[in-house]
User: What shape does this take?
Amino acid sequence: MKKQLVVVGNGMSGVACVEQILKQPHDFEITIFGDETHANYNRILLSLVLAGEKSPEDIVINDIEWYQSHNIRARLGVKITGIDRERRVVLDEDRGETEYDKLILATGSSAFIPPIPGVDKANVHVFRTLDDTRALLEKARPGLKTAVIGGGLLGLEAARGLQMRGCEVTVVHLMDTLMERQLDSTGGEYLKRKIESLGIRVMLPQQTAALFGNGRVDGLRFTSGEELEADLVVIAAGIRPNADLARKAGLEVRRGIIVNDYLETSDPHIFAVGECTEHRGQTFGLVAPLFEQGRVLASAIAGNRASVFEGASPAAKLKIMGVDIFSAGSIDESEPGVETVRYEDPSLGTYKKLLLKDNRLHGMILVGDIEDEHLYMDWMRSGTDLTAHRRQILFPPRDADPGREVADMPDTETVCGCNGVRKGDIIQAIHAHGLTTLAGLKQKTRASTSCGSCTGLCEKLLRAVTPDFQEETRTTLCSCVPFSYEQLRDIIRGQKLKSVEEVLNVYGNRKGCEICKPALSYMLDMVWCGDHEEDRSARFINDRVHANIQKDGTFSVIPRMRGGVTTPDELRRIADVADKYKVRMVKVTGSQRIDLLGIKKADLPNVWADLGMPSGQAYTKGVRMVKTCVGTEFCRFGVQDSTSAGIELERRLENLFTPHKFKMGVVGCPRNCAEATVKDLGLVGQEGSWQVVVGGAAGKSVRKADLLITVETTEQALEASDLFFQYYRENANYLERSYDFVERLGIEKIRKETVYAPDVDKKKLLERLARSKALAKDAWLERETPAHPTQFVQIQPMEAQPT
Amino acid sequence: MTDARGWTPITTVGNVPLREGRAVTIGDKEIAIFHLEDRYLTIENKCPHKGGPLCDGIISGTTVVCPLHGQRFDLETGMPVLASQPECVATYSTRVQNGIIFVDLGSAHKASEEAAA
Assistant: This one.
């Protein structure tokens, strides 16, 4: 008969340990008890669920099928209340009994709730489980006054998560600096500044004396007498091992369940693993050493005593995007024989401190720049003598051969601390499954699926191991608001944000910069189809005054000349304007238009009025022109009326904005005189049909456009153009030209989602385009209704009268 | 030379929109006045790099980014943000009284000259 293995605890440590047991030959029948009703999930990612970056489904490690496929009996939502060690049975709350031959206690830890009056009021939460997270998500809403008690890793991550949901968050911490267990006071100060720059208030040192409010919490009262209003309070004041079950059963317990180097408790049939344990006086709160424990336990329980757990030096990393904090080893400077080397740059927000003992790395604090984390960890674990590295120890030179770093790593070194994936596992997976992408590696090994901090290392391994490595483009907008374009579009849409200020205040650093402000301006305009709150201060000068700034601070003016067709009247007006405003150069552009160069800002409105022509949008990321040939109307070879089609195309799309400039061309025959095949969008006339081509370029790089579709009528060609145009607007990253966009997505996918999309999807794309178009205006009309009284006007000083 | 200093009334606050700058020429001086959330700051309106009009730059916190080549200056000190840009711009004391922005044109102050002195 098979031996019964019972695991109490369905958390990360317990299940990771079971996974290790399954990897080796065994004769166990396994039962796992979990008091949460969920399948096994990755607890350390709860802050990302709170922030909305991941869904609860995303953080599931083993779904129910996994248990079934391994013949594991999962008893979820069942609490174990006692152990009868004599009879070797565990008792559940319904008085059920389950026999065991071997028992693993993986009961984890609980949030520590400090004995403060009022912690039992409504809207006071802890943040430990998926249910806690769900409860917080139900309460969180924009503007909600929220206090987080505790400025450690978990408290800060919870604070950021809630802030991302729009809450007004204050972190209250008992100590003088944040994360004082991992950082010294200088590091804590740097961290505080970063957290504050994200828009989270930090109050230190503040001891909470009571939570007040009538039934529901209204705020915190501190021992200093000060008060803080709060409608939601999250307590993140640390964790305590869940050792009661073991204590009641008479096992040796101090702070946690005492285990030896084989993870055995004081009863030889009972093992313990994870945050409920105490090993050599140490308890655990971070995941990496727990995977190591799981490995040792899996060997020991099978009777193999070759591997031992010798404890782990603490290592901690904050999982807040844009706030890079890493700490490992001992940070106690006062330890005899310890010397420190340090570097700081307040402007960059970088602080590095290394603690050395006997010329070996003993501990580290890295703030703002954690690039060298893996090298330092390697030095620390291996006890490398650092004599030869001392001169450049704070900035170790990057290896010219990027493969060296990973080649030097031992196979047993952990790459992904969140999921306990070692270098050897990754190499093996790459070979076994022929992986060439990070996505593939993530799927097969789960490496880099959690906090993402080992992504760079995983890519290096892929690059080193497989010759066919395909890099993924990462597209975080900028450090002011560190999300991908896709996430930002979702945030803007989901949180109904209408202005750049709102996005920056809630999801960014409240400042923004010349990179993110115009990008966000574009996204808001696109997502809300023009019905957003326009903020000119977030626009580049060209988009504030609708002209292109030149090297001397004057502007260039290019009126719209649809299809490159003009009239004698227009030409006369252009000539008159050139004379009247002493235009320094009149230039025929490559876009079949005329450029007036050297115009002063203050003259712009009058120049536009005198021209009496609409803006050609030559200064902006928007629809530029449609270049045409003379087509059937005059050309002996023309087979399609390219001029009329081009003018119509320009009318349909003009005054709209795009991720980058958008140039078009329409030609009446395949001779391609107006170069339609190297435009962002081109129509190429053929006998009885049009080819619609997209993603062409004739700039820094030259690229022939891809064929989107061939259609019979001009109206069909125009509709296909509309579809691609709006699809590009909605899905390209800001400043991504159509040719990069088409290459990134692939023309097949674009076809499937535009011209070959289901009618209902096509209709939606066209509707959004129509809504945008309905609100799009000729920007030069601001000559009559300026966005601001001094938009173009040169301010004249008042009469000088010194006071 | 404090006697020669004087607060010159420039324009009403409404003429400088929030988080934007506006240029004003006074005699041979061209200055750029910026409107931050709760205050106005003034610097010379000429980027030391290639003479770009700083009044047209995007504001990022308390810095302005030159529209021509992205040089960045602190509006409070006139100092460049990156150490690789050696030069700074002059700053002028600015205050608001009865809705009018006053600039002390005699207060031109260059941080780099101070450092050199």
Observations:
- The interface with chain A takes residues 6-11, 14-20, 22-26, 50-53, 56-61, 65, 67-68, 70, 81, 100, 102 of chain B (CB under 8 Å).
- Chain B has one domain: 2-112.
